[in-house]
Amino acid sequence: MKVLLVGGGGREHALGWKIAQSPILSKLFVAPGNPGLNQIGEKVDIKPENISAICDFAVGHNIDLVVVGPEAPLALGLADCLADKNIACFGASKAAARLEASKAFTKEICEAASAPTASYRKVKSLSEAKDYLETLSPPYVIKADGLAAGKGVVIANSRIDAEQAAADMLNGQFGEASATLVIEEFMQGEEVSFFAFSDGERLLPLVAVQDHKRAFDGDKGPNTGGMGAYSPAPIFTDTVLRKTMDEIIKPVIHLMRERGTPYRGVLYAGLMIHNDQPRLVEFNARFGDPECQVLMRLLEGDLLPVLAAAANGDLSGHTLAWRNEACANVVLAAKGYPADYEKGSEIKGIDGANGVENVVVFHAGTKQVGAQLVANGGRVLNVTATGKNLQDAVSFAYHGVNKIDWPQGFHRRDIAWRALSSAE
Length: 424
Ligand code: AMP
Ligand code: GLY
Fold this sequence. Notes:
- The chain has 424 residues and is an alpha+beta fold.
- It has helices spanning 10-19, 51-60, 72-75, 78-84, 98-101, 103-113, 126-135, 159-170, 238-258, 291-298, 304-312, 350-354, 390-402, 417-423, and strands spanning 2-7, 27-32, 42-43, 65-68, 88-90, 120-123, 140-144, 153-156, 181-184, 190-199, 203-205, 210-211, 214-216, 220-223, 228-231, 264-274, 277-284, 299-300, 321-322, 326-334, 359-363, 366-369, 372-375, 379-387, 409-410.
- The chain is globular and about 60 Å long.
- Glycine is lined by residues 211, 226, 284, 288-289, 291.
């Protein structure tokens, strides 16, 4: 099978690493990949957002399956463009990817499917926003409706800050993406990321992963794309799994199909768990990053036939097997991230880290400049490790991190602290 993988972050390196182990793979192309991923698959110099060029490449190279990592090409209609050319795509159509691209759409779907989530109001003016805020108590949750590169959510502790955030967004802070807002009730609880493959009708649940969104130890500091992740997540009990599938994932997938916009690909549900009850925070139409890296390390067997089956609309007969182990992923980021940071500093020691028992390093924001590997983004490396339990996985991962020589980077030292402290 000839596969084209779209994207170039840590998530895609992990996907490529897994796909490359498939006995049915004949050729892997990556558009555009990164220095780690490009050791596994052949680099195609096309940006993920350039969907017509990706489609043309797929046609020209007789690609059997396109696997899409990030959300932007899905929201732009890459899956639709490929469908027109009869090329299978693991990734949602533009209409189905609205589950990520529009928070107001997701809320309407949840309402129609009776899926538990925070109560909300969709607003288009500051006076509507103020009226609804009046009915809520702090903290207040203000969201841009559309895609805002992960920056479109403000949790404000005071009404003044909430109104200011709403005013800024409505005044065009995120352009069209914040012309409409979703204001919602603040949900208490603990967050997990849950994933399920869907062929439009049938579902194959994956496992839950917890990530660490704040930049610094103790879950302090600014929100980031994710500074680390681990699985299993002790809070995701069998009861929570059953409720998540029965009350959220199945009804939503069913409704999307009924509406003529079947959801194919991986559905990522960000959940808030409180007293064994999951409620939806958000959907994403892709794998999480850094969660995907953990999933790929724990998944046993061949992933490629499952991705192809989801893309081709028939998951029946497919199952997933998981290693009976834990996995941790520690993100190494450039100092200053998620605000301003420098690019271009040299990174050494990746081979040493990869030499540590159970460790696999995935590249995220790196670049090869001659013989040097340099930092080229905010989140730069992912050091993943498996272990017989979470404690072991975490110690192997930090053992790997310690082999990396990159003074301009930083990382959290407490990945999985919540799960480890609850196990004591
Ligand atoms: P989202 O992009 O919708 O996932 O929001 C980003 C982050 O904001 C989430 O991961 C949560 O930590 C937080 N968040 C969003 N909505 C809520 C809510 N209704 N209650 C509590 N926290 C929320
Ligand atoms: N880890 C959060 C995300 O991928 O959106």
